[in-house]
Write a structure and sequence with these properties.
5-stranded antiparallel beta sheet, 279 residues, alpha+beta
Length: 279
């Protein structure tokens, strides 16, 4: 009797294990199919604000066609007293090309509003990528684009100083890695726009990309971190390529190295264990 009970128990255990293994196998097959199919289907949400490369743009222009249209994002109130705004502009990539001569409405998003407390020496930010900015004076209804070239940008911030407001962002305007699109994977510049001067300043270095920057305390001077594209392939690798610091003097509109060549050589010699002073 006990033997029969043991046999029945073992059969139930084996049946349960078999069912579990079968279900896991079915789940595994379904997962593989889902991942395979998803890889084959183009993702329309990838790089929504990426710009077409100059080469692709030239081909479309020759055909009098376009595939990207502008869209106005929410207006951001920068100066409360003067009622001055900036409006981020983004692009929408059409599924198919259209004739430039066709009368299509590019405006997709309605204006919104923003506010700030009015405290000086304060930094605020806007989340998301964009392709241009529009300066808008609500009182006079004056409007003008801040950037004069095609670009993709992010990290939009606005900092309040005693007598000026600086709008800053990083962006790329060249397809440095030659992948057919201008994206934030390409070499990036640092952009500074002064509300007082109504002037855009562009900070960059050859074969390098902007990683980060910080204002010196209560000044419009800045310390900028660049990533060096050492192999000049159009991409910067954070794990394999070096970075370096530059100081930016706002009044002189000038970038200068922070570490001089002698210090750099001395530090490099220490790493290579070739510092003669220690021998």
């Amino acid at each position: 009797m006990n033997i029969d009970k043991i046999k029945n128990y073992n059969q139930k255990i084996l049946a349960l294990l078999g069912t579990t293994i079968l279900l896991l196998a079915i789940f595994g097959i379904i997962s593989i199919l889902i991942f395979t199919i998803s890889d084959l289907i183009p993702n329309d949400n990838t790089n929504e604000t990426a710009l077409l490369s100059d080469e692709k743009l030239e081909q479309l222009t020759q055909q009098n066609m376009r595939q990207q249209v502008i869209s106005f994002n929410n207006a951001i109130l920068i100066d409360t007293l003067q009622q001055k705004y900036i409006i981020p502009i983004i692009v929408r990539t059409l599924k198919t090309t259209e004739s430039i001569s066709e009368d299509h409405e590019a405006l997709m998003d309605m204006f919104g509003s923003g506010s700030y407390s009015g405290k000086r020496y304060r930094r605020s930010s806007f989340y998301g990528d964009f392709n241009n900015l529009v300066y808008w004076d609500f009182t006079t209804n004056e409007m003008k684009p801040i950037c004069k070239t095609r670009m993709i940008a992010s990290k939009l911030e606005y900092t309040y100083f005693e007598d000026d407001i600086l709008v800053s962002f990083v962006g790329a305007d060249v397809d440095s890695n030659k992948d057919g699109h201008v994206t934030l994977e390409d070499h990036k510049n640092l952009y500074l726009y002064s509300f007082k001067e109504q002037k855009l300043r562009i900070l960059n270095q050859n074969d390098a990309t902007v990683i980060d920057f910080k204002y010196r305390h209560n000044t419009m001077d800045a310390i900028v971190t660049f990533g060096m594209d050492r192999n000049k392939n159009g991409n910067y690798s954070t794990s394999k390529e070096p970075s370096y610091l530059m100081k930016y003097k706002f009044t002189e509109d000038k970038l200068e190295p922070i570490l001089n060549k002698d210090i750099s050589n001395e530090l490099q010699a220490l790493i290579e264990n070739t510092d003669e002073s220690n021998e």
